[in-house]
Amino acid sequence: MKQTLTPAWRGMALGIGILLLGLAPARADRFEELYPVSPEPHIDIEILHGRVEVQGSPSPVVRVRAHGGDLEVEGDEDQLSIRVPVRGFRPWNWKRQGVRLRLEVPYQSDLTVKTVHGPIEVEDVDGVLDLHAASGRIEVTGAPREARLETLNAEIDYEGDGGEVVARSINGNIELRGVGGEVDVSTMSGRIEVEGEELERVDLETMAGNIELDASLAEDARVHSKSYSGRVQMRLPKDTSARFSIESFSGEVRSEFAGTFEPPRGQRVRNTVGEGNARIDIESFSGGVRIEEDDGKARERRRERREDRRERRRERREARAEQALERAERAREAEEKALEARREEDEKVREARREAEEKAEEARREAEQKADEARRKAEEKAEEARQKAEEARRKDWEDAEPDPWLEPMTRDVP
Q1: pLDDT for the residue numbered 401
Q2: Is the separation of the CB atoms in 218 and 238 below 8 Å?
Q3: What is the pLDDT of residues 146-203, one digit of tens each?
Q4: What is the Cβ-side half-sphere exposure of residue 68, based on CA atoms within 13 angstroms?
Q5: How far apart are the first and last CA of the chain?
Q6: Distances (CA, A) of 196 to 49, 188, 203
Q7: Which stretches of the chain score pLDDT less than 50?
Q8: How high is the pLDDT of residue 103?
Q9: What phi, psi does 65 have (nearest 5°)?
């Protein structure tokens, strides 16, 4: 399987403090933040212990909500990395250091999640999924293009709509519904159940557990199923054209298809149905093999379940679209209130400035008036002093005795 990882509502971000990318660690005791991204970003999540829940959203933002621990968030609009750093790790109480991480991402996001201890749940993310849990259940619901699911000691539950899947588990059951194209499933200990349409390549293998395949096949499909300890059961359409090669060392082989049987070679039985286009190879070391012919009822049930899954997905997306519109409306109202509050504050500032300017102008006029009054009074006093000085000089002149030296000069003056 190829493992290539590959107009938004702007009002969603209005009125909300959107943290710019390239960020320092954020405390996640009660953490919630929005990060603007492109419609098809790649989201990378790594935590040691905790629960990861990811939900698709119609909005071009990543909403991160977390409880417990620290978060390190960095990246840009095309790629976002979210990690929970390990500080003060103690092996005897590491389970208490878990974080619950809940994300809303654009529907077309590519998603990589890695955890050591804790479950992973992904719903309605249509991009490429790469999910790894060392010890935790993996649950996927939606219609991803491709999915690679791996866990060591837990179950895998997948419900899709025609996507290709690789699923691995050491100890746990694997159940896949709504798969298509290529499917590769293996577990050491656990049962395998696969339901799909138009499968092209199928590899199913378990060491200890039953295998059940309920599907239709592409014309040149290749199917390999192997169980070391457990039965193998297949339900295929009545018009299947395939060449069967079946081997069971300890168990009964039963087939409802009336094809052409070749002489058995050891424990292997060969049977050709129709033109023998597809190739189906089945091995069971300790367990029977049963191949059932679907007269259309099983396919109808699969179709009904597929339509039910699509209807439930459509309802979920409609509900999320309504929620997104409600959030956008609340953000718009918050922005309007913030703008109104800002306008009121600006008006108050302008009014205060106007009052201050008026008071300053009034004080300036009063100061000028006082200065003019003081200047006028000073001039009046100066004039009065000058007049008094003049009067004093005249009086002194009149009271003074004649100067004999000046008398001859003044006597002839007419």
Answers
A1: 65
A2: no
A3: 999 999 989 999 999 888 999 999 999 999 999 999 999 999 999 999 999 999 999 9
A4: 15
A5: 141
A6: 33, 23, 13
A7: 1-25, 27-28, 89, 91-96, 263, 413
A8: 94
A9: -125, 135
For residue 227, how many other CB atoms are within 10 A of its CB? Answer: 26
Angle at 213 between CA 128 and CA 221, to 5 degrees: 70
Which tokens hold the place of 227?
Answer: 């169980």
Q: Coil, strand or helix: which one is 130?
A: strand
What does the alpha-carbon distance between residue 104 and residue 61 come to, in Å, rounded to a whole number? Answer: 8
Cα–Cα distances (Å) from 395 to 14, 354, 392, in that order, read 92, 60, 5
| CB distance 225 to 232 below 8 Å | yes
DSSP at 91? G
Distance between CA atoms of residues 53 and 112, nearest Å: 12
Please name the amino acid found at residue 250.
S
Question: For residue 283, what are the CA distances in angstroms to 13, 231, 287?
Answer: 56, 9, 9
Residue type, 280: I
pTM: 0.70
Closest CA to 39 of 15, 57, 54, 64: 57
The tens digit of pLDDT for each residue in 297-317 reads 777 777 777 788 778 777 877
Tell me the one-letter amino acid at 20.
L
Write down how long the chain is. Answer: 414
- Euclidean distance between CA atoms 184 and 200, whole angstroms: 11
The residue assigned the tokens 């991402």 is 105
